[in-house]
Structures are given as C-alpha cells and as structure tokens.
Amino acid sequence: MATTSPPPAADPVWTEGPDGYALALDGASLVCRNARGRRLKTVPKKVRESAEAEHLRGVLLRLERHERECVERVESWLLGSLPVPASVIARVWADPAWRELLTDLFVVPAGGGDGGFLRGVDDRGRIGVLDLDAESVWLDADRVVPVHPVLVEDLEDVREFALELGITQRLPQLTRAIHRKPDAVEAGATAVEDYSGGEFDQLRHATGRAQRYGFTVRGGYAVCRVTERGRPVQARYWIGSDAPDYGTETGRLLWVDDAERPLRLGDVGPIAWSEGIRMAELIHAGRRNTEEETTQS
C-alpha cells in the first residue's frame, strides 16, 4: 500500500540564544546546547530567561493548543459517527498532531460496507486501511466514518483482533466503555435515577471530576454533547449548584434535544445513551463511600 508517509523524525531546530548558546524544542521540553555544540542536561538560567526562550515557550503553547483542538475535533467525529471527507483526512495527514489521532481509528465507508483501521492516504486521496482479514486495502469511498464503538458490529471480535495485532489508539475508541439501553427501560420516562444520591463532601470535588473527564458543567449539570442521527443531543447529569465548598448530592440523568426539550428514554439513541451513562458512572464513582463509613462506625 503506497501511502503518504510521515516525514522522518528530525533533529531539533536550533535557534541562536545569548552568549553563543542555542535553544530548541524537543517534544514539550526546552533544550540547550553550548557554543561548542554540546547539548546540556539543563538550561542555564540566563538562557532560560532570555527572549529567545520566551518565544519558544510561546510556540510550545500554540502547539499544545493545536493538539487540544485536534483532539476535540476528532472526538466530535467519533461521538457522532460523523462522515468525514477523505479529502479532509488527506489534507491534514502530514500534520503529526492529526496523524497521531487518526492512525488506527476504526473507520467504515459512509455509504456502508466493510472498514478497517486507518493507516494512510495515497496521492489520489484514497483512504488505506488494515481490514479485519489483516489485509491492506483501499476504501472506495469519498467519506469515511470513525464509528462509535456502540455501533460497531461484533465489537468484541474487533477488539480482540486489535489486541492480537498490538493496535493502540491515541484517542480511545475500541477501548471506550459502552452502555447499551436495556429493553426494559420505561420508554415514556425522561430521566434515569440510578446514579442519584451520590454524596460529595464538596461540590468542587464533583465538578473537578466532571472536568477531568472532559465534560462541561453548566447550571448544576455535568454535560456531554453528542450527535445522534445528525442532530445534536446533550446528556445532563445533576451534580449540584451550591457554593463550591458546600456538600452536594447527585441527581437524575436526562437527555435534551437541540431545543433543550427533555427526551423520553425511548427516543434516546444508542450513542447518546451510552455516553450519558458513561458520564454518570465516571462522576458517580468519585462519591463518598457511605457504605464503608457506616461499616467503620
């Protein structure tokens, strides 16, 4: 498979600094070499505080912001199983931040058909994948879909195949926890109460846990945004709205549509259900262990 290969790893690009020193970025670290070209284990203070060092730190901040933006964009594709034009993937593939996120994502053609693990793009803009027969193939599709794992057919088999091949994903896809809506759910209800009553000594502990896992907090709710069948949906889990240092207790989990109208549980799609339950479980798991406290007392 002839793909657009990533550029080979390069030596740091050195910038002249004060008193004959040179500075460079090596990954996320500022490095230095002396006038004889020997790389130093530490950066001298006068070099670390120089204008050249300040400029490189600014470059590093911009790169970190770019990487976060790439993660947010690819995750939005995943959380909506959104079709992505092959031309877009071809255009960003040379960028290491994009390429690291996209490599080995499990994708399928937007029009249906077998997919595989994304491995590259050729000069014609075709998407190359490693399919489930361990064969390198080109997808005959103008758009591909990074599939949310709850929608992957035979998910356990795909997970096992990836494990056998040693495939790792920069953005967790196949390893993401999924939750399928039970058949016994009360279709006309509008909330799940299974994660209510979780006690936190301080509200900031609950909000901090929500934010640590990438959820926004608004109006007392932890919020997870997804796209279901092309329409935006929000899962909302009540964590409290008092002062940050006050105790709090979690409440119901609900879903709302793009007009912020509560959805009946029977109308909540598989991605929104899975991501909402995942959010509630992650936050609820950080609650105070009241059962343990009762036993000890």
Automatic annotation (TrEMBL):
It comes from the Bacteria. This is DUF4132 domain-containing protein. InterPro entries: DUF4132. Pfam families: DUF4132. Residues 37-214 form the DUF4132 domain.
